[in-house]
Design goal:
CATH topology of the largest domain: Rossmann fold
Largest sheet: 6 strands, parallel
CATH architecture of the largest domain: 3-Layer(aba) Sandwich
Number of domains: 3
Distance between the termini: 21 Å
Strand order of the largest sheet: 3-2-1-7-8-9
Strand content: 15-25%
Bound molecules: zinc ion
Structural class: alpha/beta
Number of strands: 9
Number of helices: 9
């Protein structure tokens, strides 16, 4: 089940590998995940609200300034660099072996590593927009405005990041792209996710092949249906597979 040489042979032969990743992909870059003991949800913050609530649509709608402050202080990691997982996946894409990355992460580290086809199902922190007029802002512009939530274009709307908050729906275009990639993949590598969060976890049910690879530090509920299971750092396995 865990024969990595056999998996590497399959990777060598394939030109239709898809990677589906979660927070565990970025922890080696110094970005905390949400649910583990050292994760964001278990860290103290100076408000009375839970981090999970502070990342909800309800909190954003009722406290947009505090929401933006939370984003600035807890979600933006300016010094984060791609790690071995991001670099290996970008290499496999350049070799024509990897079709795309579907990620739950909002940190843009895949793009920073050079990946081009990245479906960010939870959005990203590069792009911001006004909820009233739709004017778009880059992270750079938002920073230069000291993370102000006031829209300078219409003077009437609230600026927010293009991320999916709790209580909000995934974008249909992203769902379609993710399902197409996963549904047509020859090898699906799932990394750094406990596969507990709906609807992201349901995506792997679209995979029809017989090379389902799970890489996660802890067990997942899907281990029994996987063809290869590694309780390891995602970067360790990916860099080994990409070394061809
Ligand atoms: Zn506006």
């Amino acid at each position: 089940m865990n024969n990595i040489e056999r998996l590497k042979e399959a990777v060598k032969k394939s030109n239709n590998i898809v990677f589906f990743g979660g927070a565990g992909v970025s922890t080696a870059s110094g970005i905390p995940d949400f649910r583990s003991a050292t994760g964001l949800y278990n860290q103290k913050n100076d408000s009375n609200f839970s981090p999970e609530y502070m990342l909800s649509h309800e909190f954003f709608a009722n406290h947009p300034k505090d929401f933006m402050k939370y984003v600035k202080e807890n979600l933006i990691y300016e010094d984060a660099k791609p790690n071995a997982a991001h670099i290996g996946l970008a290499k496999l894409e350049k070799m024509g072996k990897l079709k795309g990355v579907v990620t739950q992460n909002i940190d843009s580290l895949h793009q920073m590593a050079g990946s081009e086809n990245v479906v960010e199902i939870h959005g990203n922190l590069r792009d911001f927009y006004c909820t009233n007029c739709g004017h778009e802002y880059s992270l750079e512009e938002v920073k230069n405005n000291n993370y102000s939530i006031e829209c300078s274009a219409c003077k009437n709307g609230i600026v927010r990041p293009d991320v999916v908050l709790y209580g909000e729906s995934l974008k249909e275009r992203n769902i379609i792209n993710a399902i197409k990639l996963i549904g047509e993949a020859e090898i699906l590598i799932v990394g750094g996710t406990s596969l507990k969060v709906y609807p992201a976890a349901s995506f792997i049910q679209y995979y029809k092949g017989n090379n389902l690879v799970l890489i996660n530090k802890e067990k997942t509920d899907y281990d029994h249906i996987a063809d290869y299971v590694y309780y390891d750092d995602v970067g360790n396995i990916i860099s080994y597979l990409a070394d061809i």
